[in-house]
Amino acid sequence: MLPELIEEVSIFISLLEGLAGSEGKWGPMFQLEEKTTNLTFDIICRAALGLRLNEQQRTESSPLKLALLDQIRLMSLGANAGRALPIGRMPWHNAAIRRNNKTLRDLLMPQIQSKLETGPNDSQVRTIIDLAIKYIDKDDPNASIATPNAEFVDRLISNLKAFLFAGHDTTAATLCLMFKLLQDNPECLAKLRAEHDAVLGPDPSHAVDVLKKSPHLLYSLPYTLGVIKETLRLNPLAATLRDPPPGFFLTAPGSSLRYPMEGWGVWLSAPGVARNPNYWLRPNEFIPERWTVPDGDPLHPVNNHAWAPFSIGPRNCIGMELALVELRIVSVLVSRTVEIEEAWDDWDKQRGSKATPNAKIDGERLYWAGDGIVHPKDGMPVHVRLREHSPAVSA
Ligand code: HEM
Questions:
Q1: Mutate to test the pocket of ligand 1, among 317, 324, 375 (most ligand atoms within 8 A of CB)
Q2: CB 311 near ligand 1, within 6 Å
Q3: Domain co-membership, 186 together with 214
Q4: Is 310 touching ligand 1 by the criterion CB < 6 Å?
Q5: From ligand 1's centre to the CA of 216, what distance in Å?
Q6: Whole-number mean pLDDT of the chain?
Q7: Superkingdom of the source (predicted)?
Q8: Concatenated DSSP letters for 362-378?
């Protein structure tokens, strides 16, 4: 799907360029997460459904995005407030969920229907629907493309919703975090740009063509991958639960105690492990080099399993490769084109009496908050300027 991904990221860059000020000045403030969400939503819709939504260019969100985001909001509301209030049982809450489910089903069904009519796509570009349809008769030998089993269709719709949710939210927030960390660590940003100059050529305006011709170059960028892995190490956004079978125990190294887990949900505390000083030197620092130094170097990770933002094992994130490719392409195409900087003063001005300039964690206005997975506070207000005019380049 690389050509499709590059196409969507190119639109993202044009939008950022359009938001830059004239003559090298900072442009108007906007919320970066809104732009990254539209980008990743467009990508996952193409990957899952083969549908081009053009969310990035729309002035109003599509009904598909609106219904899905509202469903995520309602899910979080039930999960959080539901602990204290019986919100999940409130009739209007359930009615809203049913309404969204119907909207999503009505929008997804035509995509499934058209695949059932044409049959799965055997070309290189296959969507999640294509992949699923290959197994149409797995549980029911009488089912076929002409006569699909109703339960199969229901399950496909459920899985498509899971893909649409899991496939955009996390990547959109991770992109924001990556730009935040690069803003705070200019020496790392300079190294990243130097790697892109060396591998893709010094002119950033040629990068799209270079990538289209030689997409494998995306896999020859060790420092870029280090930036991405380090972003995800410091900010693992998603988590998961396991339902342990009877007889499953947790143990702690050096202790003879065995903790029976039956009846409990086991949650891997990825953020705790990712900053545990037993596994990481200078654990709270952003050091992409730890992913490029040779084995044996004190910076090198001592335990492969301590990095688990996509979880580990047979049910780990199925979209890990797609997410890493998206992050690589955005990093390559954006980092040398524009400068991105947080713009809290402009945000506060826009919020007026609702501004919360003292809301900080560890002295930072940008902390992680929100529904479903964590999100950058207030959608990460930023402004951008074109890089060719930046003092760093002219110096
Ligand atoms: C930076 C981006 C992403 C992060 C940090 C992330 C993280 C995770 C994590 C921690 C899980 C739970 C795995 C487990 O239970 O062991 C998960 C599951 C999942 N992810 Fe991702 N994910 C990302 C991007 C994506 C993308 C792009 C897709 C879509 C292609 C995707 C689709 C899924 C699906 C469908 C599951 C459920 C898998 C299953 O239950 O077998 N994710 N993800």
A1: 317
A2: yes
A3: yes
A4: yes
A5: 24
A6: 90
A7: Eukaryota
A8: TTBS--EE-SSS-EEGG
